[in-house]
Amino acid sequence: MSISLPPSTKNNIEKLQPTGWLRYFSFSLDHKVIGIQYLVCGFIFYLIGGLLAGAIRIELTSPISDFMPREVYNQVLTLHGTIMIFLWIVPVVNGAFGNYLIPFYVGARDMAFPRLNAVAFWLIPPAGLLLISSYFINGAAQSGWTAYPPLSITTPAAGQIIWIISVLLLGGSSIFGGINFIATILKLRRPGLKLMQLPMYCWAMLGTSILVVLSTPVLAGTLILLSFDIVAHTGFFNPSLGGNVIVYQHLFWFYSHPAVYIMVLPAFGLVSEILPVHSRKPLFGYTTMVYSIMAIVALGLVVWAHHMFTSGTPPWMRLFFTIATAFIAVPTGIKFFNWVATLWGGRISLNSAILFSCGFIVNFVLGGITGVALAQVPFDVHVHDTYFVVAHFHYIVYGGSVFVIFSSIYHWYPKFTGKMLNEKIGKLHFAITFIGFNLCFAPQHWLGLNGMPRRVAEYDPQFAFVNQLSSIGALLMALSTLPFLWNVLYSIFKGEESGDNPWKALTPEWLTTSPPPVENWIGEAPLVTEPYGYGEKQARKASSKPNSDQ
Amino acid sequence: MTTVSPINKQSNELTAHKEEHADHRLFGLITFLIADGMTFAGFFAAYLTFKAVNPLLPDAVYELELPLPTLNTILLLVSSATFHKAGKALEKSNSKKCQYWLLITASLGIAFLISQMFEYFTLPFGLTDNLYASTFYALTGFHGLHVTLGAIMICIVWWQSRSPGGRVTASNRFPLEAAELYWHFVDGIWVVLFIILYLL
Amino acid sequence: MPPKTGVYAILISLALIIACIWASNNLSLLPADASSNAPIYDELFNVLFVIGTILFVGMTGLVIYSLIQFRRKPGEEGDGLAIKDNLPLEILWTAVPAVVILFVGLYSYDIYERMGGMQTLNHDVHNQHSMSSEERLWGGIGTLKEDNAEIKEFPINVELTAMQFAFLFNYPKGEIISGELHVPVGQPVSMKMESKDVIHAFWVPEFRLKQDVIPGQPTILNFTPTKTGRYPIICAELCGPYHGGMRSTVVVEEPEEYDAWFQKNSKSTEVEL
């Protein structure tokens, strides 16, 4: 809200804010500009991370290590993981869409702390550049995105320290963002708007931000201790100095398991916004959706040790974490059944947005099923740290979160730009992505079950054919970005005009111009008490309701 | 800027927001302190696990004396009270008294830091001597960093609360309230730290 | 829902279940089973595979059916039905997954117990070697005790040392140090593992067993090989540049062959010593 600045300074700042395309390169305080900054910045890092993934898949087309030196291979896989998680998915599903949509959804003119918001964004590009530059300085970190000691202590220190610094910066950005979202959702709601009337994405972001605030600082503390081990030769995690490597794993996963929910909960929220609009039906089971998000948040904090079943944990601990993990499937399942029920009986426009959303449902169900299987200790001891796990989490983060990001771009592109994306190219993009993704990752389940560990540059020759199949899938995924990029860039200039509300949606962001004015609404913010008031019987009542207050 | 003034229509709403305005910042600060507290929680968990699982190596030295840290605890607890006094004084627009209590709080904080340094120099073990020693220094050092930041903040608030020309006044108490909340938080962490590191 | 659709739905579901059970029994998705652990594991795998496939195909089918059946046909206007919620339905799809999860959890607990996961891991045989770190032994699961009385004898003790980038097997009884693991078929093996540098993991896919090998924290892994053959030992925890090349072989052989190997090697080391 503009009022969080004293009037005099506010005017000064407004005068200093550039307009036009230049504002996207400025320290803008406008939540919509910051949202786009997150999105575009994240997408650039996605392309970089994708190139690294391509390098990994090229290396794995042959069973011997022949494409790049082994040290470089380990750097590439470390950078790929770190970039995709910390610079693409987390900033985009949280920062980009959160910043753009949350103020609209709560009926505010900006986030609670606009300046903190801009700071949070501007931590990301330097952190990302720092991370990538480490490759050119002295070699990047080589110990995977998990940076398990003692490996991370014994590999070249420079790359590992730079990795730690950039992850700390990104963690800080994430915490600032989380604080901002919690304050905005809880404190900045338009008078008259109740919590249980908020669009589902607000609930998802509230849950996510709670996870961010509670778990990210633990990672920060852990990485500080790790950097002490590397620089000052303390022995927290160094067994040769009396330290304990398992403690690192506990602390690391205390953040990094919730990190999975930090990546998928906002995606759940976005899908809950997209499906009702395009199937012209209310979101099914709003209340159970809210409770299931909160249940996922609560359970998500107490399941971390399922990443450590083979580390030598005591039996009681394994049992506890097995049960807690498996039970996350219940609230998650509720959400999926509710989404299908939202589709059921609707009048679905088969456009790119809904195709990507449904692709997400299918992919994520498979990822969730393998997840429940992996939660079982006896199952996990065979496939832990194999390609089965690689397949599982790519089904969660790519088949889940990234599919939703694409779906969201197709859905909100008219809002961002006032132009439509080309539907034919969009469907082509979906087809190539969906086929490429499944071709790339489905066979990896088999690889893991049959004896191929993850993070290897060389493997048993019997796996060559399936790996080549997987690499073809990766190639298709790489190709799929081309029509998307062309579509997005071409449509900015030559796209069909969309009008203010091309989808006839009822959520508040559509009840203003596209793109919206600087403070979101000309006039007062509308009071939307029924963001999902679609439906034949109530059509007239529902569509008149949002405006009833004006 | 195309700022249209819908605000005029709803002037009641705006004033309502303006009153809440400081609350948002305090709310943000509380959220941040919860996050900060989780960092400490992580350190405490690590320390307790080390103690439970990793026995001290036979020739390692790890002994802590109680008197100095007890004095430190008293210093910090008293400083919390004096900071509270300063806040009360500012509420009554008595900036002289407020400055007086702030100065005492800052002095107590600095006395804590000096005493902590003194303890560091007299301890029989160094940072890299053994696991417990490292964790001890990491925890107290991280806390000391917080105290240092707090002391600097108090000094700034003290400077800004001078009677003509300062920005911290009875009508703009937020900087003082924020610093006070932070200070109480740092004291609370110290009490937990004192119990876990020295008493357990 | 018209009654005909209901009949179709039931028929399709039944066909799906039968197909899944057939597939789980006839498709070979797993490598050979060469330890007493493996058949138990495969049992769990089959159950999870059937449940998972039914869920996956069912959900995918529902999504595709909805997209086709409820798509907006050209010229159609207006919205879908304004159904916001349905409490009995929502209770149903909270309860059913909860029951399934509960079943899977109890079943996998049973499997875990049969694999020997709930046993205390401090065996007398190991205390001789590791007095100091006795209480800190952690371990993986493994079938040391079985119902048949035949396997009540002492297990074969092996000490595994992992380092960048090799496994070394030490047989304390015969003072053998070997780069390959030799074990007789049908006899339990108890392996104490420790790493010299970074974390490694000992994995034999055919045994369905994996346990991290941790520096400063000895771990225990027990297993009973059941089929002769040569199986790969794979390091499954990123341990440095040559992680992918860190492999060895476990040779499961007939007791006589094993004895011959043991005699031959222990003698030669004795001569050298």
Can you describe what's shown?
The complex is a heterotrimer of chains A (550), B (200) and C (273). Chain A is built from 17 helices and no strands. Chain A has 550 residues and is an all-alpha fold. Chain A is globular, with a radius of gyration of 23 Å. Residues 1-13 and 538-550 of chain A have low confidence and may be disordered. Chain B is mainly alpha-helical and 200 residues long. Chain B has one domain: Four Helix Bundle (Hemerythrin (Met), subunit A), CATH 1.20.120. Helices cover 78% and strands 0% of the residues of chain B. Chain B is built from 6 helices and no strands. Chain B is elongated. The N and C termini of chain B lie far apart (61 Å). Residues 1-22 of chain B have low confidence and may be disordered. Chain C has 2 domains: 3-69 and 88-114; 124-272, Cupredoxins -  blue copper proteins (Immunoglobulin-like, Sandwich). In chain C, the strands form 2 sheets. A 6-stranded mixed sheet of chain C has the order 1-9-6-2-3-4. Chain C has a 5-stranded mixed sheet with strand order 5-11-10-7-8, with helices on one face. Chains in contact: A-B, A-C.
Quick recap:
The complex is a heterotrimer of chains A (550), B (200) and C (273). Chain A is mainly α.
Provide key terms for this protein:
heterotrimer; B: about 200 residues; Four Helix Bundle (Hemerythrin (Met), subunit A); 6 helices; C: alpha/beta; Immunoglobulin-like; 2 domains; 5-stranded mixed beta sheet; 5 helices
